[in-house]
Amino acid sequence: DPPGHDAAFWYRKARDHNAGLEMSEISRNIAESQLGIARAALWPVLSANGSYTRTWSSTDYTRTSAGLSASWPLFSGFSRITDIQNARLDVENAELSLRDKERELEAHVYQQWETLTNAWQQVGFERDAVARAQQSLALSEEQYRLGAITDIQYRDAQLALLNACVRLESAIFQSKVASAQLEQLAGMLSIE
Hints:
The protein has helices at 7-17, 19-40, 79-146, 151-185; strands spanning 45-55, 61-71. It is mainly alpha-helical and 192 residues long. A hairpin with a 5-residue loop joins strand 1 and strand 2. Helix 1 (7-17) packs across helix 3, helix 2 (19-40) runs antiparallel to helix 3 (79-146) and helix 3 packs antiparallel against helix 4.
């Protein structure tokens, strides 16, 4: 059967099942996390501590203390700002890589879709050629019975029909191969 879905359907399926695309998305998420970590270095570091002491003696002595401290490294030689800029570049590179993978996948899917569509058009052309060859053979057979053509001309009509059938089978095979490649690209090919 000819393909039942349009190229956009196959692209959506391929986008959902493509491992390279998933890896690019994971790389982008990691780069965004690294950017967050680099930005966090600009904030002060807070630390809290507390203690409770009780001694048992003639004068019951209890002491509680709590503390909160903040540290902010001022002199880092601009390494924190450099780390943030590098993390931003990593995020941009990951985004570009993801877009490149998406475009590459889209190009492959649409190219394979065109190959499949052309293969099915070729099947239609070859079916028409077989029908014409059958009509030609029937006409040649009638002419042969009447003595209007020779044995060789009749055999040529039979050979033309045979060649048309072979081309039709070849076109059907090519369309099946193109369909399987499209299903593989979309991650829908199941091997049992």
